[in-house]
């Protein structure tokens, strides 16, 4: 089979969803026009492990417009939008993804997309890159990586000198992390929490673990909705930044006693652990925005719970021996994609424009790049920004000839 999705009859609704996304992704649509005319990806096979959302569909259709053959699997068992997956199959994309995959399904789907012997791979989280290095002997032109967790894994592979092909860290582009990680995750995380719980944010004590770009965005938007926000950090630099941004900073051991909403965004394991659960208030809500479901020790929570109930979709109640109830959202997985729809299309316009142009760059430079992790070239970053501004109807102030010349000299001073 060239696909495995939940229900092909959902395709018509999926097409409408994709149309809605494309309406709000002007930069990517401009790139698609260029790809259709120039066919820079002609004859290239691409296998991708990405969240199968309407925005991803807009990217995949752009790659196809550029001449590529694409196979797609989901990068999280709960993030696939089944109507979008069905619509992509009808577009001629080999899709192996559905919402509610188990772990075995997840890795089998990665195996399926690698059967097409891709020349380029695209990943979100690093599982595809890891699978290739452990199980695949074919030669690749290169790959891309969408998120912080995956870039961290790839940098370790580079340091250990096991990386087999060049990878462009799309996550490290200014037009990715400043907007996708910070603004996109900030909004979509709260969207997921509200869809799962319908609680009032205002007045609550919210604890954000991690003050990277994702944590910054979540903390800022929780505060904007009236929450009293505490930040938990291990880095002295980021902790200092959080303090200077006006947030309280303390260890999780203290925050656990006073928090009412907890959100993890660290990329690390067991950030909220058994000893923290036992200190929490009755009714505490736990959500994760990191890529993998390891930041909240879900296994440990189950071990100390005497009763577990599903209250509503993506909301589970854990009653502890001390009688307190803790509420876990989306089984500790990415709350913004599991309980909601992920980032708004306007933000993913930037991220996926970087992805499309990075794939083109890999092909154009296939004999020049070493097996290393590369940042997105500045030219691509600035092109994406300009395309986005143009799509928003915003003009830049041009420099005069005098100003250009002034910036090229060193003699004039005070």
UniProtKB/TrEMBL annotation:
CDD domains: SAHH. HAMAP family: AdoHcyase (MF_00563). Pfam families: AdoHcyase, AdoHcyase_NAD. Its EC number is 3.13.2.1. GO terms for cellular component: cytosol. Its cofactor is NAD(+). Binds 1 NAD(+) per subunit. May play a key role in the regulation of the intracellular concentration of adenosylhomocysteine. NCBIfam families: ahcY, PRK05476.2-3. It is found in: Cytoplasm. Belongs to the adenosylhomocysteinase family. One of its GO terms (molecular function) is adenosylhomocysteinase activity. NAD(+) binds at residues 147-149, 181, 210-217, 233, 268, 289-291, 336, 343. This is Adenosylhomocysteinase. Pathway: Amino-acid biosynthesis; L-homocysteine biosynthesis; L-homocysteine from S-adenosyl-L-homocysteine: step 1/1. It comes from the Archaea. It catalyses: S-adenosyl-L-homocysteine + H2O = L-homocysteine + adenosine. Keywords: Cytoplasm, Hydrolase, NAD, One-carbon metabolism. One of its GO terms (biological process) is one-carbon metabolic process. Residues 181-342 form the S-adenosyl-L-homocysteine hydrolase NAD binding domain. Substrate binds at residues 53, 124, 146, 176, 180. The gene is ahcY. SMART domains: AdoHcyase, AdoHcyase_NAD.
């Amino acid at each position: 089979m060239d696909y495995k999705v939940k229900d092909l009859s959902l395709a018509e609704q999926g097409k409408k969803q994709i149309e809605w996304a494309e309406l709000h992704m002007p930069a990517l649509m401009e790139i698609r026009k260029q790809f259709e005319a120039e066919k820079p990806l002609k004859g290239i096979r691409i296998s991708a492990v990405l969240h199968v959302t309407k925005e991803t569909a807009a990217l995949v259709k752009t790659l196809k417009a550029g001449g590529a053959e694409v196979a797609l699997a989901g990068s999280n068992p709960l993030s696939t939008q089944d109507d979008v997956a069905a619509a992509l199959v009808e577009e001629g994309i080999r899709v192996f993804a559905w919402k509610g995959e188990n772990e075995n399904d997840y890795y089998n789907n990665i195996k399926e997309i690698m059967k097409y012997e891709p020349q380029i791979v695209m990943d979100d989280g690093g599982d595809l890159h890891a699978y290739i290095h452990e199980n695949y002997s074919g030669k690749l032109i290169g790959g891309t990586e969408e998120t912080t967790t995956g870039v961290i894994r790839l940098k370790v592979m580079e340091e250990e000198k096991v990386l087999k092909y060049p990878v462009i860290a799309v996550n490290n582009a200014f037009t990715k992390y400043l907007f996708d990680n910070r603004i996109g995750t900030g909004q979509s995380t709260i969207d997921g929490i509200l869809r799962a719980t319908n609680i009032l944010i205002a007045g609550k004590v919210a604890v954000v673990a991690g003050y990277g770009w994702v944590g910054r965005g979540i903390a800022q938007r929780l505060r904007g909705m009236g929450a009293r926000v505490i930040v938990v950090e291990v880095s002295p630099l980021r902790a200092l930044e959080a303090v200077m941004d006006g947030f309280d900073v303390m260890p999780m051991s203290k925050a656990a006693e006073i928090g009412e909403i907890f959100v993890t965004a660290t990329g690390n394991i067991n950030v909220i652990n058994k000893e923290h659960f036992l200190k929490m208030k009755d009714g505490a809500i736990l959500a994760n925005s990191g890529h993998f479901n390891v930041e909240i020790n879900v296994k440990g929570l189950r071990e100390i719970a005497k009763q577990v109930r599903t209250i509503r979709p993506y909301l589970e109640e854990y009653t502890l021996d001390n009688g307190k109830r803790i509420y876990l959202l989306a089984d500790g997985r990415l709350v913004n994609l599991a309980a909601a729809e992920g980032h708004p299309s306007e933000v993913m316009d930037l991220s996926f424009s970087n992805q499309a142009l990075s794939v083109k760059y890999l092909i154009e430079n296939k004999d020049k790049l070493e097996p290393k992790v590369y940042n997105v070239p500045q030219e691509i970053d600035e092109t994406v920004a300009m395309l986005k501004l143009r799509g928003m109807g915003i003009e830049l102030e041009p420099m005069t000839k005098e100003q250009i010349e002034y910036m090229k000299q060193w003699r004039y001073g005070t």
